[in-house]
Each structure stands twice: as structure tokens, then as C-alpha cells.
Design brief:
Layout lengths: L1 H48 L3 H4 L1 E3 L19 E7 L2 E11 L4 E7 L5 E6 L4 E6 L2 E5 L13 E7 L3 E7 L2 E2 L10 E2 L3 E8 L2 E4 L3 H5 L4 H13 L9 H17 L1
Antiparallel strand pairs: 1-5, 2-3, 2-6, 3-4, 4-5, 6-7, 7-8, 8-9, 9-12, 10-11, 12-13
Helix pairs in contact: 4-5
Length: 253
């Protein structure tokens, strides 16, 4: 009986030892596999986040159907060199587009493996951005009372009053032989004067002149005539000259 008992104890010990060794080997293999997976994930994240953590704080940008006529971007479909300002930091020499339909900033960035990805920036973090010579500001930068249709405005003039411009496009779901997949509209822009926390549309000369007093209107018209400024087709520089003149009128009164 005693021998049988001892044999039983020995057998149990052997089985336990084998089980323990198998468990240790399995756990070791699992640890090695887990470590490899973690290293792979870490390397992938390094490739992706090597651009800039602050810039990357967004998501992938889905391209629209290339067969749609036109494009959803400000000005044209070309990539432009631009600068994005986040938390007071300037990120320059970026390849940038401004999708005016969804009101988002798109950048083309190279990740660690050399491939290019299109990224839609988190616009709640972007203070402003610049495309070529055009500067765009977030609507709440100057407490602009937005109508929920525009998040960014192009800054046109900023002195005794603020002048901004909104840009928009839309998808036209009308299909024809020329546009079997639909098309994007042409760019439409509206000019606004910001006063007393309100946006006053000044896209036409009459709407602009209404902002000023009667005597001031005469002076403005004379200035425009002298300087050959056609309000509807005025260039950026002409608008700034006109706004400077109007600003001085307000200050002098």
C-alpha cells in the first residue's frame, strides 16, 4: 500500500512538472509573439507619427470620386505650399488644400516608409492657416457670430473694423453626358464686415455703403471713382485700399 501510494505521488509530481514546463513554454512563446506584435505596432506608429504629433491630430481624408467634374477645393485642385498655425506654433512648407464643401484643411504628408497620405486636420485645434498669400482664420478668433455654415473665413482687412470673405461650393447631382457622375459647382464668395459681434454682408456696393453715414458715402464714391475701383470686380489690393480709406473716415469722425 505504501509503495502504491508513493508511486501515485511520484506520478502526480511528474505530470505536474510536465504541465508546468508546457505552460512556461507556452507563456514564453506568447510573450515573444506579444512583444513582436507590440514592436510592429510601435514601428508603424513611429512611421505615422513621425510627421508631427500636433499636425497628425486628425484623420484620413477620403478622396471624392475622380470622375466627378470639378473639385471641392478653394481655387483649384492643385496642391499649394501653406502654413498651419496650431496652439501658436507655425507648421510651414506643408502641401495643403482647403475643402470648402466640408470646410476642412487637407494636407499631403509623407510617412516613415515614404508613402504619401492625405490627412484631414482637426479644425478645432487649428487657429488659422495660410495658402499662398491668402490667410484664413477660425470664426471664433474674433468672436464671429457664425451661422454654422462656415468655420473658416479668409481675412481681407483688419484695422478699425474687420472684413472677411467666405467661400463655398456644392455638389450638383444633375447627370448628363458631360457629367455622368455629377459635378461640383464653381466657387462662390461672400464679403462680410464684422461689427458689434455681427457679420454684415457687403458683397454688393449698396450693401457696403449702407454701413456708412450719408456724407461718408459721398467721399467713398469719390475715392472709388478717382482710383478706378469697380467694387464687384475689385482686386485684393483695391479692396484693401478702399477699406483703409473707409477706416480713416471713421477715425476722423
Amino acid at each position: 500500500m505504501k509503495k502504491a501510494y508513493l508511486l501515485k505521488i511520484l506520478l502526480v509530481s511528474i505530470i505536474f512538472s510536465l504541465s508546468l514546463n508546457q505552460s512556461l513554454v507556452l507563456a514564453q512563446n506568447q510573450n515573444i509573439n506579444s512583444r513582436k506584435n507590440l514592436e510592429k505596432l510601435y514601428n508603424q506608429s513611429l512611421e505615422f507619427y513621425s510627421i508631427n504629433d500636433e499636425i497628425i491630430n486628425g484623420c484620413a481624408y477620403p478622396l471624392s470620386n475622380s470622375r466627378i467634374v470639378g473639385n471641392p477645393f478653394y481655387n483649384n485642385d492643385n496642391w499649394n505650399t501653406g502654413t498651419v498655425f496650431i496652439n501658436g506654433n507655425a507648421h510651414s512648407n506643408l502641401q495643403i488644400k482647403y475643402d470648402v464643401i466640408i470646410d476642412d484643411i487637407i494636407i499631403k504628408a509623407k510617412v516613415g516608409d515614404g508613402t504619401e497620405r492625405l490627412l484631414k486636420l482637426n479644425k478645432t485645434l487649428v487657429d488659422s492657416f495660410k495658402i499662398n498669400n491668402s490667410i484664413f482664420i477660425k470664426s471664433n478668433t474674433f468672436s464671429i457670430d457664425q451661422d454654422n455654415s462656415h468655420y473658416y473665413y479668409e481675412l481681407i482687412y483688419n484695422s478699425s473694423f474687420l472684413v472677411v470673405k467666405s467661400h463655398s461650393k456644392r455638389f450638383i447631382d444633375m447627370y448628363s453626358d458631360m457629367s455622368p457622375y455629377g459635378k461640383f459647382s464653381s466657387l462662390k464668395s461672400k464679403l462680410y464686415l464684422f461689427d458689434n459681434k455681427q457679420l454684415i454682408e457687403i458683397s454688393t456696393l449698396n450693401s457696403f455703403l449702407k454701413y456708412f453715414q450719408k456724407e461718408q458715402r459721398k467721399s467713398i464714391k469719390q475715392f472709388m471713382k478717382t482710383n478706378s475701383i469697380n467694387y464687384k470686380s475689385a482686386s485684393y489690393n483695391q479692396i484693401n485700399e478702399l477699406m483703409n480709406f473707409c477706416s480713416n473716415l471713421i477715425i476722423s469722425n
